[in-house]
Amino acid sequence: MKIKGLIFLLLFSVKSFAQQVKPLKLVAEMFDSIKSLKTVRFKVKSLERANGIYHSSFTDNKINSNPLKIYFRNPEKKLEVLYVAGSNKNKAYVKPHVFPYVTISLDPVGNIMRKNQHYTIFELGFDFLGRAVAMALSKEKDITKCLSYHGMHVINGYNCHMVVYESKNFNYFEYTVLKKETISSIAAKLVVNDFMLRTRNNLYNDYGYLPIGSKLMVPNFYAKKVVIYIEEKSMLPVNISIFDEVGIFENYSYSELILNKPFEENEFDKNYKGYGF
Predict the structure, then answer these.
(1) Domain boundaries along the sequence of the chain
(2) Which of 17, 208, 221, 249 is the most exposed place for a label (fewest CB within 10 A)?
(3) 3-168+223-259 domain in CATH 2.50.20?
(4) E strands within the chain?
(5) pLDDT digit string (tens) for 31-78?
């Protein structure tokens, strides 16, 4: 099932229970808030586990939802990325932090930009968080039994509702690879976490077709546990942690949100003031 259809069905079922169960009502409102975003500016601190090591980064980000336009920079690494749908042959402009320090164009879903990254630039922002929660809930027979509410907490200066999803039956099963399947296509088909699937099978940077008949261990749920902090005013998830059987797998913490403020006409041009392309 396509993700948009999945979210619609979940949103419908969540709203039908919303008046009785508080965490379901909060998740439903979170989905609505994410759908309402036209533009967003934010800072995000990410923590991702790869090869048994946690990697952190801090980026400034701008996203225009339709048409899709993305700009982000990592001040510490002096890395900048700009993507505008339909331009530059649908490649991203990348100003790397390594020699020769010249702007290059790269495929956003190619090996270089995805290396040791849990997600592509297309998962940057709140749409991804909504999809992650939707996918986590999609396989549960009774959503009311896997969601719990844990009160109000202050996160990054925001007053937030804490909602926890936890799978009681998280495990792995053996899967036989079919013709012309990749890790990403299998993850999408089975509605599981792409990088979690890579991690379990030690295929971190394998983006091509897998050998037919080869065996993979696949998680039966999107995650073992998801902890979400939903900001009470915007109803957006400003902090989300996703866990596997080992522990925390990834965390994304958002701050300095500016919502639905129009961008300047040339703000996604690589020659825009302050950019280093």
Answers:
(1) 3-168+223-259, 172-219
(2) 208
(3) yes
(4) 39-50, 53-64, 69-74, 79-84, 92-95, 104-106, 147-155, 158-166, 172-176, 215-219, 225-231, 237-243, 248-259
(5) 999 999 999 999 999 999 998 999 999 999 999 999 999 999 999 888
